[in-house]
Amino acid sequence: MSLANEKLLGKIAMLSCLDDSYVQKIEDLGWRFCKGKVGSMESNKVVAAIETAAKKEGVINGSIYRETHALYHAIMEAIYGVTRGHVQLGTVLRTVGLRFIVVRGNPYDQAEEGDWIAVALYGTIGAPVKGLEHEAVGLGINHI
């Protein structure tokens, strides 16, 4: 079992979140993905937007618990990165404006390893006053 260098799920997800031209690599690998944007002062709305997009676009099957659970953990890990480990937004007067991508695929040489899911976030976080934010990134990866 080893990761295939040309199939690094997290790297491909983050690059695709930052630059749309990398999405072609996801398509070439035959992986499933969805992209979107979310802005909120509430972390639950960020989670809901990403989960809804992934279910709607068929990246995960929402009726299978392990798929929803894997996605949830990947989202939370990515949010921890954006919020520097404190998943608090509005309660401490912070807001986010994020681009996201959810990518599902097998990053290993062997098909038997199964699918993994990556959530990449890029955008801004800061006080809810235009111009008082800064850039932030987050990446979460989980097995399905």
UniProtKB/TrEMBL annotation:
Transmembrane regions listed in the UniProt entry: none
SUPFAM superfamilies assigned: Hut operon positive regulatory protein HutP
Keyword set, alphabetical order: Activator, Histidine metabolism, RNA-binding, Transcription, Transcription regulation
The organism's place on the tree of life at top rank: Bacteria
Any Gene Ontology biological process: positive regulation of gene expression
Signal peptide location: none
Entries under HAMAP family matching the protein: HutP
Function: Antiterminator that binds to cis-acting regulatory sequences on the mRNA in the presence of histidine, thereby suppressing transcription termination and activating the hut operon for histidine utilization.
UniProt protein name: Hut operon positive regulatory protein
Source species of the chain: Fictibacillus aquaticus
